[in-house]
Amino acid sequence: MPDETTSAFQAATGRDLETDSGKPRYLEYQRELIRPHCGRTVLEVGAGLGEFASGFTGFDRYVVTDVDSGAVRKLKERFHDRSEVEVQQFDIDGGTTLAQPVETLVAINVLEHIEDDIGALRQLAESLTPRGNIVLFVPGYQQLYGEFDRKVGHFRRYTPTTVAATAREAGLVVETSKPVNFLGAFAWWAAVRKGGTTAPNPRLVSIYDRFVVPVTRAIEKTLPVPFGQSVLCVARKP
Q1: Span 135-158, mean pLDDT?
Q2: In whole angstroms, what separates CA 196 from the centre of its chain?
Q3: Per residue in 54-107, pLDDT tens?
Q4: Is the dihedral of CA 136, 114, 213, 183 positive or negative?
Q5: How far is CA 71 from CA 41, 110, 183, in A?
Q6: Parallel, antiparallel, or unpaired: how do β-strands 41-45 and 173-180 relate?
Q7: Is the dihedral of CA 64, 59, 233, 102 positive or negative?
Q8: Contact 41/61 with Cβ under 8 angstroms?
Q9: HEC states along 66-127?
Q10: Which of 112, 164, 189, 228 fits 154 for a cystine, CB–CB 3.0-4.6 Å?
Q11: What 3-state DSSP class applies to 19?
């Protein structure tokens, strides 16, 4: 049975529906895509219960944060034995900034939850050193928007063009913006848009992670893809 802190976190945020637990191959693919854009010091916002950060190592300083106090408590427990990890409560909408800026900020499935995404990016840039990177991993393509998105509080899904335009409006210099998880877009369309599902099926998620993610990685290492379930955007602070 989940403990009271975990249950409170899930009830408050709905991120039990968005969790990446049970998708080890997908998480490793995300890390593979994001790592080349990271410096020695990293801030991850909206880290949830730390699924991504748990396997993202080798940094001098890694600040994991969430707006939810229950998540912060769980993060402190999870990372108590990693000396380079700092855990903080961090509210983008509330104007939180780091006292000591970092070289890289990572936001995975965060920006779509914020109505004023341009203002959020401006605020996030305050925690970066000059020429530091913001790495955004966001849901892709409004055509895939369905009941699941509404249920978890997504204001929008992005294309490479729209997320890049948002970053530029926030005063950032876009280095790259591209679709990722090509095959996942078909699975998402079938399950959410056509199937109308409002929650992940753990069995299907496991099958997808085991068999589809390795094929997706192999395709995207060699070929540019026209669309995807997600979009990766890297933008630099001037």
Answers
A1: 93
A2: 23
A3: 999 999 999 999 999 999 999 999 999 999 999 999 998 888 999 999 999 999
A4: negative
A5: 22, 15, 31
A6: unpaired
A7: positive
A8: yes
A9: ECCHHHHHHHHHHCCCCCCEEEEECCCCCCCCCCCCEEEEEEECCHHHCCCHHHHHHHHHCC
A10: 112
A11: coil
- Give CA–CA dist 58/194, Å, rounded: 41
Q: Which pLDDT score, from 0 to 100, does residue 200 have?
A: 60
Q: What pTM was computed for the model?
A: 0.89
Tell me, what's the pLDDT at 10?
Answer: 47
> At residue 12, does pLDDT exceed 70?
no
- Cβ–Cβ under 8 Å, residues 150 and 177: no
Cα separation, 166 vs 116, in Å, equals: 10
Q: Is the CB of residue 164 less than 8 Å from the CB of residue 177?
A: yes
180: left (phi over 0), alpha (psi -120 to 50) or beta: beta
pLDDT band, residue 191 (cuts 50/70/90): low
Structure tokens that stand for 60 in this block? 């001098």
Report the alpha-carbon distance of residue 32 to residue 201 in Å, rounded: 25
Say if strands 230-236 and 173-180 run parallel, antiparallel, or are unpaired: antiparallel
